[in-house]
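Notes from the 1:1 (GR / supervisor)

We went over the backlog. Supervisor wanted to see one worked example end to end before approving the batch request, so GR pasted a single chain during the call. The sequence is below; no edits were made to it. Supervisor asked that the structure be written out right there so they could see what the output format looks like.
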Amino acid sequence: MLRANNLAKKGLGTTSPNPIVGAIIIDQNGVEISNGFHAGGDHAEIVALKNARAKGVQDFTNCTLLVTLEPCNHHGKTPPCSEALIQAGIKNVVFAVSDPHLIASGGANKLRDAGIEVVAGIQNDYVAYTNRAWLHKIKHQRPWIVSKIAATIDGKIAALDGTSKWITSQEARFDVAHIRNQSDAIVTSTATVLADNPQLTPRFPSESQVLPRSSNPARVVMGNSAIPNEFKIHENEAETVFLNSHDFSELVELGRSREWNQMMVEAGSRFNTALLQADLVDEFVIYMAPSILGAGKNFIADLGITSLANRKVLNFGEVSRVGNDLRVSLFVNHPEFSEIFNKTLSWGGAK
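Structure output shown during the call:
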């Protein structure tokens, strides 16, 4: 199941509004026949079946399908996976996470009614973590919001003179490109655009093996300041949505209406502070460089907290080394994911 989960990760950023899913078909001896993952077209189960048939396998009566999410049970862009598995004659189905979607759920019961043995909940915690953006969207009706921070060890994102390029290493910036590529939208402020003139698109070395997307994630720019036409944000490498507002409810509604799974924030301290105060940050990913500025701009500004008893408590997620930097994931209001990393200090990374 963990291997199927790693396959599912390959679809991050390509499946919205659907979840990421990985699937593996094994024979009666536990030998892998084929695998597949969802990348915006056929569902993972269908890809695995097609790959098996391409190898000449037609009889699945002694086979087991392992899949990260309960097979769907509705007609959407594609027919129900539950029907395809029944027609294929699969003997056993093992899945990790039950489908919480009111329309798509019910696949397990349909498979059982057809005489297929079904086992649920295998490696549920790891798979739920990997698919956290979609699961959060279904439960809370808004995208998962992750904010990326590049800071010195003392929490500075810029020096007193405003310089910030580059605090962290090239390897860290490459890792950030993966998070961008796995997101449906990248959110920033007009202040950040005017200060840094960012392109806000995933950029990888030519030799990297990254699943190509049909288009780059959308760019969302919030604020009322005008952006000159020569700035990179106007270039056509990605769609750009300008929200001439500081009202985060408009950002949430945009994400909801577009059915995005994940929005990534790349902005300054004022924006991140306001977003945190609005209780709209689900995860911080902080790239911490082994350097000290002492003075400069903090990545979070004054929260109005005057007592230690009122401090904002976060939960550690993955902690790992990226180049010469430390990559720290912190969950806001999601302690359930922190429990996973009590078992292991490093698990998977953005890639």
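Supervisor's comment: The longest helix spans residues 170-181.
Batch request approved.
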